[in-house]
Structure formats: C-alpha cells, structure tokens
Design goal:
Blueprint (H helix, E strand, L loop, with lengths): L1 E10 L7 E10 L2 E7 L11 E4 L3 E5 L1 E6 L15 H13 L4 H17 L2 E7 L3 H11 L2 E6 L2 E4 L5 E4 L1 H11 L2 H4 L1 E7 L7 H14 L3 E5 L3 H11 L3 H7 L7 E5 L5 H9 L3 E4 L1 H6 L7 H6 L4 E3 L12 H15 L8 H8 L1 H6 L17 E5 L11 H7 L6 E6 L2 E5 L2 E2 L4 H15 L2
Length: 435
C-alpha cells in the first residue's frame, strides 16, 4: 500500500539531518519513497492512504536496544531492591515457573506497550525466545532477538546446561524471517553468569554464525569488584580476552567503567545501551554517558525489562537520559536534545546492524515511522520540535505508528494486536506466578 503524509513537520533523524517544517513523506509498500517540501512534491504519486499532518510531527520510530519484553508479567513486582537481591532472590524464582505461553503473552504485552509509546524496533533477551519470536512475527514489530547457548540454573547451585544446539536451530528458523523483520543474535547474559570457558565458546558460536552478541556489562559496582577479585580483570577486559568483543556487541548498562574499559569499548566498536531508569531504580548508579559520547562510542537507549523500570516507554527513557547527566555533572549542555533523539533512533539502528535500514526518515529506508499529535496543551506552542520531542512529548502522544510500511497503530488503536485479550492473558499469568 502507498501512504502519503502531507503538510507534516518532519524530524528526519540522524545527528546532522534537517528538520522540515511542513513537508511530505511518500511510502511505497515497505520503503520511504520520498521526503520533500511542498514545491518538490511529485503529482504522479498515487496513495491509497493520505494522512493530513496539520499540527502533527513525524519522526523515525524509536529503537529500544535493551529489554526483556516478557518481563511485563512481573511489572511492579519486587521493588526497592538492589540488582542482586532483585534478580537472584525474587526474579529467578518466578522465572523458573514461567511456561512458553506465559513468555509469549508477556512479550505480546511488551510489544503492545512499545508500539503504543513509539517503539518500532526492539532488542531482546529472555528465556524461551521461540515464544518471543512468535510474538514479534505476529505483531509486525521489528526486532533483534538473542538466544543463550547455556541454561543457567540459580535454583540448582548455578548449574550450567549446554544449549548450543538450540542456538543453531533458532538461527536457522528465525534469522532474517519475514524479509528481515527479525534478526538473531547471541545472548551472553554477563561475565558473572558465564564462566571463561563459556565466554570463549560463545564468541566462537557468534563468529561461526556471523551474528552479534547482547550482554549486560558492569551494571553494578559489586559486579566490577567481584570480577576483579575473582579474575583480576574487569568484565570488559574479560570480554576482550575471550573474543566476545570480536563480533558486533550491544553492551547493556556499562555503569561502572574504568578509563581502560572505555578505551576497550571504543577500540572494539562496542555499542552501549544506556538504561537510566533501571539503573536508578535498582540503585546501580549513573553510567558515564558524556565520557562515552566524547570518545565517539555508539551510545543507544534501552528500557530494560518492565520489572526494573517499570515500563517500556522510550519517550520517558529519552527524557531521563537527556536530563540525568546535566544534573549529575552540573552541566546543562550534556546530552542535548538532538543527541538524545539520535541515541534513541539512528544509533540504535547501527547497534542492531540496521544502519541504512531503519532509524532515519530518508528515501530508500524502511518505512518505520511514528506520527505525534502535537495539538495538545502540553505541546503548544511547539517552538523547537527537537526539544519538544525530548522534553515535552509523552509516549501516549504517539497517534499512529507505521512499521515496515504497515500501520500497526492508528489513532491510538492497535491494528494487529488484540490489546484487551493480551492484558487479560497477562493478568492470569501474574495471578499464577507472582506469590
Ligand atoms: C536469561 S534471559 C535474561 C535474564 O536477564 C535477567 N535480567 C533482567 N534485567 C536484568 C538486569 O538489569 N541485569 C541482569 N539481568 C537482568 C532476566 O530476569 C533474565 O533472567
Ligand atoms: Zn537487562
């Protein structure tokens, strides 16, 4: 289907790209066919659907580079705890009770929430990823899903079970599914759940399949200190030594980094997923984002799961990312609005190996865009659209969302996902598993 957005404010995205005050975007099937001003419009473009952009803004869909979508089933469970108590004493025992169906419905709810708050691509790691993949394909969202080569059982003395064959099966079945809507990567949870042997093996698997890795790195001070005590090196250096950083990596958190760690991340082209809300809520700390940006490291934004955030709203995350470092360092110029949007869009695309595919509104890119209704008291007057998106717009202001050229939400109604059904299923799951 061809779609025409007319007379609309356009944030094209990318650090140097312009904002167009009243422009046109033409979508031909799954691709952006043109982006232009009124005098450049091609009259021969025939659209089956025309969206009038008066008092609206279109921008690239947001890219959530670190989440665990199925954890919506544990939303608002286990609060005000440190990461260690939260994860080992509360989350792992509940996760041990989750069925494949639970994971499917939890992921579907996470996807519904993400679409309703402007996310068009997400990066995920969880337990039964076949169930998450099923939800991704059915819902029409774009995703990078990682699967673990081991099963780690905290309930049974931290036993490790080899599940390498599941990685190969998952890759074979899902990688590039639906014309590339789903891509596969390897989950290496962390250097505290994976031993050196499995870090080495994981890097070999990722190299063999030609895929990237998703990992948690240096989320807490405790993680850093225990690594130094046990191995004599930081988790980042451990990743360097075991070959983890020889493939494209998205490293979530990166809160407690040494200067040497930052040099390693830069040298190995590692992308960082900044999760400010989760880091604040678990009392983990504040990631040195300005230092990472100064080094030219690709910094992106993630929500983490709904059990540590407690939502998957990327507008909220972008807002906090833009405010946090200004206040922490007494420096208002840090993480400016343009940088925050870039982190949440095109940098996220690059991190997922989707640069040139999504993250920017430009001819030839996949049509992954969101339309924001600016005709609201808290968004009036707009004055500066870039600032408005970061400092005033809320996730619920996203009116329509287009992913791969398909309208997945129109006037705030999801067109593919049955929102009521999904919520009732997840309520049932929560009733059963949350004690
Ligand atoms: C094996 S699937 C992923 C695993 O990660 C857990 N998890 C969720 N959030 C965090 C976090 O912030 N740090 C470390 N681990 C996290 C999740 O519960 C799953 O068990
Ligand atoms: Zn996480």
């Amino acid at each position: 289907m061809n779609i025409l957005l007319k007379n609309i404010g356009i944030i094209t995205g990318g650090i140097d790209n312009p904002h167009i005050e009243e422009g046109f975007v033409g979508i031909k099937d799954d691709i952006i066919d043109f982006v232009c001003s009124a005098d450049e419009l091609q009259p021969e473009f025939k659209a089956q659907k025309v969206i009038d952009g008066k008092n609206k803004l279109v921008m690239p869909g947001l890219i959530n580079t670190h989440t665990h979508s199925s954890m919506t089933v544990m939303r608002n469970y286990a609060n005000d705890l440190s990461l260690h108590e939260w994860l080992f004493d509360n989350i792992f025992p509940v996760e041990a009770c989750l069925t494949g169906e639970d994971i499917y419905w939890g992921a579907m709810l996470g996807i519904a929430e993400m679409i309703k708050t402007g996310t068009t691509t997400f990066t995920d790691m969880y337990l039964d990823m076949n169930e998450v993949a099923r939800a991704v394909i059915e819902s029409g969202i774009r995703a990078n899903l990682s699967i673990s080569p081991i099963k780690f059982n905290a309930q049974e003395g931290n036993k490790i079970i080899d599940e390498t064959s599941k990685v190969y099966d998952f890759y074979k079945y899902w990688h590039n599914k639906d014309d590339g809507m789903l891509i596969v990567s390897l989950e290496v949870h962390s250097t505290y759940l994976f031993n050196r042997e499995w870090l080495n093996k994981s890097s070999e698997i990722a190299k063999d399949l030609g895929i990237g890795i998703q990992i948690h790195i240096q989320e807490t001070k405790r993680e850093l200190l225990e690594s130094i005590e046990k191995h004599g090196i930081t988790p980042s250096r451990m990743c360097l030594e075991t070959g983890i950083f020889d493939v494209p990596v998205i490293a979530a958190h990166c809160v407690h980094l040494t200067d040497d760690d930052m040099d390693i991340l830069k040298a190995k082209n590692v992308s960082v997923a900044h999760n400010p809300t989760s880091n604040l809520k678990l009392g983990s700390g504040i990631a040195p984002i300005p230092s990472l940006l100064e080094r030219g490291i690709n910094v992106t934004i993630g929500t983490d799961g709904a059990a540590s955030n407690n939502n998957l709203n990327m507008f909220e995350e972008m807002h906090i990312a833009a405010l946090l470092h200004k206040g922490y360092k007494n420096e208002p110029a840090l993480v400016n609005a343009r940088e925050a949007i870039t982190m949440a869009t095109s940098n996220g695309a690059v991190a997922n190996g989707l640069g040139g595919v999504t993250g920017v509104i430009k001819k030839g890119m996949k049509a992954d865009l969101i339309i924001i209704d600016m005709n609201k008291p808290h968004l009036c007057p707009v004055n500066d659209p870039i600032a408005a998106v970061v400092y005033s717009v809320q996730g619920s202001d996203v009116e329509t969302s287009i992913i791969n050229g398909k309208i997945v939400m129109e006037n705030r109604v999801l067109t593919i996902i049955d929102e009521e059904l999904v919520m009732s299923k997840v309520r049932e799951v929560a009733k059963r598993v949350i004690k």
